[in-house]
């Protein structure tokens, strides 16, 4: 079966060339690959990861006039105007539960995340960053214009360029997370518009907003980076990767069954490949099927399978090639279905070697504690983890309270970079390289004090709380099985996001939950109350003062009625005083 | 003590009043007016009122005032009734034999003619033709001995005064064979023209009129001005198609888009790189003075028109009726992608290759006839051309069909549309004029001059409108803040307007244009400065809510005592009159 994959690829290439004939004599300068990976998750959910990769063989910076074909014009103009080296933008709703769902291909923090490497020719990086985020905010209809110096940091070690890079001087890097950002249809529509086939053909037909946002996790991203044009790497090409990951709750929507089909998830089926794509694949993870034990069944039966070590684990995928007309031969459309043959035991899944949690503790509105718990579940190998914490300035960290404990003992980080916050100017940045011993739990905690904000600095719903962006974990996690170096250009897209350095480990970047912290919140009608109270006091004082100064006082003889006089006289007579 | 005295006096008054009611009343009245206690109270109340008016009001006024730097209101007011004198230097060269010998002696050096251009607003426009007469030099004589007028023109030495905005008119002998017999004048592609001379007594006057006619048609004519000024012209000179030119701007982005809604049937190739180099670049290089131009091109797939074309059975083709054209653009525009890199206006040129199911597709004009170019343009937006695929290409089994776009045909249409969009209508000449074809770049030099004139006038009119409406707004809305930098922009704009007027009157077209552009930039910067809006939305009801708790309790006693004092004074005056 393993041999079948390259064979179909050759067949496909032949078909492609044959169909277009001599017209492709000159090599196309850009190409599109699209793929969809469907993974049944251990918890019974189904994750679907779309990747659309547009590769453009062009030195974008050095041309005066640009001619765009598959690469979107708006992004191309951005790269050349702001001399962007690399751009990574993700918009995410929900949280990827690594412990239950396993390692993601590419996780993103809840909300919006943007990190950009600028080229070393950029003089004023901060200005370019500000303008770039404003323009991106316009392109993707997201609130990226709220990125300013109070939530931008310059990480020193955690974010390295993913593509080709000459130098890694981190002064050309900017990183920002907006955990408050709510992602919705208006962000998806412009993202879809960047696809060459729009949402008219190919895999993008499945991208129906009302289904995609009816999910437990939705993450859409744009990654732009320079890559090698060929194996000699003498010139560069630009790669635009648009990824979209959704997690469908198949278990509850499927009445307790974990079976799923494309139609049930997306309410669409695939009818044709995008005619512009040079490769269009659907992968279904069937690793649960072992040699002797067939636990699940996919229909229609796959023409080929693909085996690879993905994220350190050996996996088997059923491959459907949409450019191969045989895929659609049975029916007009492809409606992939997966049926479980037997209920598998839920406890048997492999917990990822690295996962983390984060929470805020303490009581009252003055102080508190941020704790991050890092798990290394590898039975015998220790590995280092780069932990990046960005804490807004209104939580004042007490850096002397930073404690890192593993198995009850203090764990001294081998590298610490701490940049204290400045009020209303920049956030706290804490980067640490921590060694996680095998099979251990490490707790990183730091205490903080809550600052008082000015009353205009509060968000419109201050009692909702203030978000603290998630901590970022970057690590080289040991593989369960060794990998062989593969041809980067030919392997599926989902395995080529991060460069593979060696065969015994793989790179993982994880994000913890964003935190919600309550700050001391004033009563917002207070200023008006104060005004009213002060004015009343002033008015009362003024009034009596005024009265005292302007009134004239006369003594008036009290007027008494006859009845009163008669009563008074009776009393006087009793007392023996002469009557009135 | 005081109370005791008052009580004593009160009792005495009462006792007295009992005895002589008539006389005592008068006495009481005088006592009331003279009562030192009453007078003291009155003075105190008056004192309070004076303090409130003299101290409180100015303090309140000063502290709640919106800041306004001083602006040149008087100068802005004068802008409205500007008098623009456009000086057009015309050098008139007489060839031997074109003028009677008698007239040669009394040939004046210069003659000035003025022509009023009617405008709707108060602004006045005067074209001032300054004609400098001289006899031809020997080499000019030699050049005009050529057989055809084109050769003669080519052989002419480039005159010294061939600057932007000037004209050279050669008067050739009446019987010259350079021009066809029935034609009086020839207008060349450069800033040169030829006019037939005259003989007889009134020769000089006749020639003068002819020269003036040529000069007028080569300088700012009404149709060019109409294109630039749009709604500022009198009603009878305005028409809908005059509104198509783009507004003057610092730069323009030109985007050529190829729309291929059916990539499964058509594989469209267009040589846009070559076409831009050979057609668009030379054309735009002439406009260098007008602004910066940046160009790019893109190919959009699955981009549909918003209208379903109607099938015409007679010709077995599809038609787009003229009335449905407005609906074509909107859905396409969503895909075009806004220009991310700059704020300049975008001019779109779309080449639409209709899908196979709807081809061939023809555009019908209002009368139902096919449009020869199969293209239309949208004012201030750009142009669309439908490019039909040769139906013979479908006689194949191989799809997609390769389509090679004939760029010459396409660019002819696009360049013609570009001329219209920039406001260079086809020159209209009197019947007895010979109009030379444009040079290879596609634009006659004097047409460019006319455009510069028109743009300068347009810019000045725009500045006038902007500044006048700013002044009006400031007059109407008191909450607008004018900071010092905004004020300095206004001053700069006003100064630049005056510079432009001076330069126009001096005949320096280029510097006048630059000054007018500077004026536009400054005035727009001032008008659209965000600081103008800072206090604009501070509603009055909130102000009252804050003021009332303080002002009401303070003001009411003052008012009441004032009323009381006034009433008492009136009463006393009446009583005194009665007593008298």
Automatic annotation (TrEMBL), chain A:
GO cellular component, as recorded: cytoplasmic vesicle; GPI-anchor transamidase complex
GO molecular function list: GPI anchor binding
Alphabetized InterPro entries for the sequence: PIG-T
Species for this entry: Monodelphis domestica (Gray short-tailed opossum)
GO terms under biological process: attachment of GPI anchor to protein; neuron apoptotic process; neuron differentiation
Protein name: Phosphatidylinositol glycan anchor biosynthesis class T
TM region(s), chain numbering: none
Superkingdom field: Eukaryota
Lineage: Eukaryota, Metazoa, Chordata, Craniata, Vertebrata
Keywords: Signal
Secretion signal, residue range per the UniProt entry: 1-25
Automatic annotation (TrEMBL), chain B:
UniProt keyword Thylakoid present: no
Main subcellular location of this protein, as a coarse class: endoplasmic reticulum
Region spans: Disordered: 1-23
InterPro entries: PtdIno-glycan_biosynth_class_S
Membrane topology: Multi-pass membrane protein
Pathway as given in its UniProt record: Glycolipid biosynthesis; glycosylphosphatidylinositol-anchor biosynthesis
TM spans (from-to): 544-567
Signal sequence, renumbered to the chain: none
GO cellular component terms listed in the entry, alphabetical order: GPI-anchor transamidase complex
Localization per Swiss-Prot or TrEMBL: Endoplasmic reticulum membrane
Keywords noted in UniProt: Endoplasmic reticulum, Glycoprotein, GPI-anchor biosynthesis, Membrane, Transmembrane, Transmembrane helix
GO biological process, alphabetically ordered: attachment of GPI anchor to protein; GPI anchor biosynthetic process
Pfam families: PIG-S
Family: Belongs to the PIGS family.
UniProt name for this protein: Phosphatidylinositol glycan anchor biosynthesis class S
């Amino acid at each position: 079966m393993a041999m079948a994959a390259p064979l179909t690829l050759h067949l496909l290439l032949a078909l492609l060339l044959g169909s277009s004939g001599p017209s492709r004599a000159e090599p196309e300068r850009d190409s599109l690959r699209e793929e969809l990976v469907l993974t049944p998750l251990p918890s019974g959910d189904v994750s679907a990861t779309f990747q659309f990769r547009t590769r453009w063989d062009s030195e974008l910076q050095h041309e005066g006039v640009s001619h765009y074909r598959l690469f979107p014009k708006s992004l191309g103009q951005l790269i050349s105007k702001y001399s962007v080296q690399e751009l990574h933008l993700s918009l995410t709703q929900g949280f990827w539960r690594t412990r239950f769902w396993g390692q993601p291909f590419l996780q993103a923090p809840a909300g919006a995340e943007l990190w950009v490497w600028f080229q070393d020719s950029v003089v004023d990086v901060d200005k370019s960053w500000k303008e770039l985020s404003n323009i991106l905010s316009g392109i993707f209809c997201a609130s990226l214009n709220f990125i300013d110096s109070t939530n931008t940091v310059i990480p020193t070690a955690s974010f390295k360029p993913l593509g080709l890079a000459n130098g890694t001087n981190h002064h050309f890097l900017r990183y920002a997370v907006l955990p408050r950002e709510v992602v919705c249809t208006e962000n998806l529509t412009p993202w879809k518009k960047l696809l060459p086939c729009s949402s008219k053909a190919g895999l993008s037909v499945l991208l129906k907003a009302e289904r995609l946002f009816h999910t437990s996790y939705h993450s859409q991203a744009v990654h732009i980076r320079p890559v090698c044009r060929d194996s000699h790497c003498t010139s560069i090409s630009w790669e635009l990767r648009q990824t979209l990951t959704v997690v469908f709750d198949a278990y509850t929507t499927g009445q307790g069954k974990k079976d799923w089909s494309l139609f049930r998830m997306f309410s669409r089926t695939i009818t044709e490949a995008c005619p512009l794509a040079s490769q269009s694949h659907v992968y279904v993870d069937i690793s649960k099927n072992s040699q002797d034990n067939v636990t699940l069944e996919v229909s229609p039966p796959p023409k080929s399978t693909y085996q690879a070590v993905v994220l350190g684990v050996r996996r088997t995928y059923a491959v459907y090639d949409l450019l191969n007309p045989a895929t659609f031969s049975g029916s007009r459309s492809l409606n992939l279905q997966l049926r479980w043959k037997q209920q598998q035991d839920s406890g048997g899944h492999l917990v990822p070697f690295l996962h983390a949690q984060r929470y805020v503790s303490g009581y009252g509105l003055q102080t508190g504690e941020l704790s991050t718990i890092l798990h290394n579940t590898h039975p015998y190998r220790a590995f280092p983890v780069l932990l990046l914490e960005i804490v807004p300035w209104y939580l004042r960290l007490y850096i002397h309270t930073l404690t890192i404990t593993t198995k009850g003992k203090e764990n001294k980080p081998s590298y610490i970079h701490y940049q204290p916050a400045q009020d209303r100017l920049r956030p706290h940045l804490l980067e640490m390289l921590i060694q996680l011993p095998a099979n251990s739990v490490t707790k990183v905690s730091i205490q903080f004090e809550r600052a008082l904000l000015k009353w205009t600095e509060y968000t419109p719903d201050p009692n909702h709380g203030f978000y603290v962006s998630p901590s970022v974990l970057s690590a080289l996690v040991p593989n369960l099985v060794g990998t062989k170096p593969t041809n980067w250009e030919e392997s599926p897209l989902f395995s080529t996001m991060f460069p593979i350095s060696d065969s015994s480990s793989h790179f993982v970047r994880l994000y913890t939950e964003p935190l919600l912290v309550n700050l001391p919140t004033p009563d917002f009608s207070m200023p008006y109350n104060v005004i009213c109270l002060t004015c009343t006091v002033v008015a009362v004082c003024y009034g009596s003062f005024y009265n005292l100064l302007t009134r004239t006082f006369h003594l008036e003889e009290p007027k008494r009625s006859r009845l009163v006089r008669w009563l008074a006289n009776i009393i006087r007579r009793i007392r023996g005083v002469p009557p009135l | 003590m005081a109370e005791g005295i008052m009580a004593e006096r009160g009792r005495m008054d009462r006792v007295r009043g009992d005895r002589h009611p008539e006389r005592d009343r008068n006495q009481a009245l005088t006592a009331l007016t003279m009562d030192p206690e009453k007078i003291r109270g009155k003075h105190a109340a008056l004192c309070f009122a004076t303090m409130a008016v003299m101290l409180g009001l100015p303090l309140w006024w000063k502290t709640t005032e919106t800041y306004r730097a001083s602006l040149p209101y008087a100068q802005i007011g004068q802008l409205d009734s500007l008098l623009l004198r456009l000086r057009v230097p015309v050098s008139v060269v007489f060839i031997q034999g074109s003028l009677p010998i008698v007239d040669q002696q009394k040939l004046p050096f210069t003659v000035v003619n003025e022509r009023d251009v009617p405008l709707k607003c108060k602004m006045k426009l005067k074209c001032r033709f300054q004609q400098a007469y001289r006899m031809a030099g020997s080499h000019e004589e030699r050049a005009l001995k050529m057989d055809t007028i084109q050769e003669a023109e080519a052989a002419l030495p480039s005159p010294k005064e061939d600057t932007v905005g000037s004209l050279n008119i050669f008067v050739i002998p009446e019987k010259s064979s350079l021009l066809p017999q029935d034609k009086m004048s020839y207008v060349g592609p450069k800033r040169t023209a030829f006019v037939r001379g005259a003989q007889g007594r009134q020769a000089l006057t006749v020639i003068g009129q002819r020269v003036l006619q040529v000069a007028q048609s080569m300088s700012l004519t009404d149709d060019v001005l109409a294109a630039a000024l749009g709604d500022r012209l009198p009603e009878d000179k305005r028409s809908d198609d005059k509104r198509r030119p783009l507004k003057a701007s610092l730069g323009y982005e030109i985007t050529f888009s190829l729309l291929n809604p059916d990539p499964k049937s058509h594989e469209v190739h267009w040589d846009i790189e070559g076409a831009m180099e050979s057609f668009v670049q030379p054309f735009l290089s002439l406009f260098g003075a007008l602004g910066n131009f940046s160009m790019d091109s893109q190919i959009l797939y699955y981009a549909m028109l918003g209208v379903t074309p109607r099938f015409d059975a007679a010709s077995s083709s599809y038609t787009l009726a003229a009335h449905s054209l407005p609906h074509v653009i909107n859905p396409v525009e969503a895909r075009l992608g806004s220009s991310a890199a700059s704020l300049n206006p975008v001019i779109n040129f779309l080449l639409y290759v209709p899908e196979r199911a709807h081809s061939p597709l023809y555009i019908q004009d209002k009368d139902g006839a096919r449009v020869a170019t199969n293209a239309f343009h949208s004012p201030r937006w750009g142009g669309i051309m439908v490019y039909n695929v040769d139906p013979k290409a479908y006689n194949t089994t191989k799809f997609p069909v390769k389509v090679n776009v004939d760029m010459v045909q396409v660019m002819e249409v696009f360049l013609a549309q570009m001329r219209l969009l920039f406001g260079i209508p086809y020159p209209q000449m009197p019947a007895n004029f010979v109009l030379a074809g444009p040079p290879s770049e596609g634009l006659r030099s004097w047409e460019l001059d006319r455009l510069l004139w028109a743009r300068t006038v347009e810019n000045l009119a725009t500045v006038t409108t902007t500044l006048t409406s700013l002044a009006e707004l400031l007059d109407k809305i008191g909450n607008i803040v004018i900071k010092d930098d905004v004020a300095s922009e206004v001053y700069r704009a006003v100064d630049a307007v005056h510079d432009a007027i001076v330069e126009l009157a001096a005949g320096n077209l280029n510097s006048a244009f630059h000054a007018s552009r500077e004026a536009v930039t400054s005035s727009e910067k001032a008008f659209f400065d965000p600081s103008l809006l800072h206090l604009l939305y501070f509603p009055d009801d909130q102000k009252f809510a804050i003021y009332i708790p303080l002002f009401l309790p303070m003001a009411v006693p003052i008012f009441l005592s004032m009323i009381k004092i006034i009433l008492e004074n009136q009463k006393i005056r009446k009583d005194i009159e009665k007593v008298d």
